[in-house]
Amino acid sequence: MNRIREARKQAGIKQIDLCKRLGISQGALSGWENGKYEPGCAAWIQLSEILDVSIDFLMGSNRLFSIPASALTDFDSDLLRKFHALDQQAQARILNSLDFEYRDTAKEAAKLSTSLA
Question: Residue 2's closest CA among 37, 51, 41, 45?
Fold first, then answer.
């Protein structure tokens, strides 16, 4: 479950005021807060900036490391938009591939650092 409502309340912003800033209906925001609908990539970024929290926090992540929305490049935003447009099964395949490539790259970096030492 996402944390949009929690972050909005923490920021002291009323639903109607956030809707005006985002240019959306109160029904849309309510749907996001209840998990009925998912915001698009641009909306996640806007929410993050307005509520002054990271996108991964808003999405419900408990990870300690986060990237502020302002650090996202256009390329990053495009990747997120495409990823969120995929169904859950396709997202899982992408994450598995990414994890595999990341582990492989980390192993190569470890080998290189030990050979240089």
Answer: 37
17-26: long-range contacts, CB 8 A cutoff, minimum separation 24: 18/50, 21/46, 21/50, 22/46, 22/47, 22/50
Q: What is the mean pLDDT of residues 3-23?
A: 95
Answer whether 82's CB lies under 8 Å from 74's CB. Answer: no
pLDDT confidence of residue 23: 96
**The total number of residues written for the chain in this structure:** 117
User: Token digits for 81?
Assistant: 């938009």
Of 34-38, 70-74, 112-116, minimum mean pLDDT range: 112-116
Here the tokens at position 62 are 């408990």
Burial annotation 61-86 (CB, 10 A radius, 16+ → b, else e): eeeeeeeebeebeeeeeeebeeeeee
Q: What is the pLDDT of residue 5?
A: 96
- CA neighbor of 81 nearest in space, from 49, 47, 40: 40
